[in-house]
Amino acid sequence: MGVDALLKTTVQYNTVQRGWKHSMSTPQKDCFGILDRVFPMGKKGLREVVPGCFDCPDKKACLEAALLTGEGLAFKSEVLDRVPANGLAGRLRRWSEKKTLSKLMKKEHYRKNMTG
Question: Taking Cα atoms as reference points, which of 47, 112, 110, 49 lies closest to residue 76?
Fold first, then answer.
């Protein structure tokens, strides 16, 4: 998911209630939106989808919610750091995406401090 898609998802996300505005097919599970539960670090140092998530009808919304948490945004930032930026356009694109992620991380940090 690119930063543009992440921003689009942010608009759909209700940051006050921390819930999705679409109708979930089942009641929200305890693991919903928790990055380390739905996309944990695997044995080889790579993140993996939990096998039990494959059959979940809300897996996409769950993973999107997890990627909008502070941990998820930090993960996206780490991924951007690892990807080489080819040419001036690539460096500008990565800079722009990092700036957008930084703003989202500050917003998430602020939200956490206000509700936490």
Answer: 47
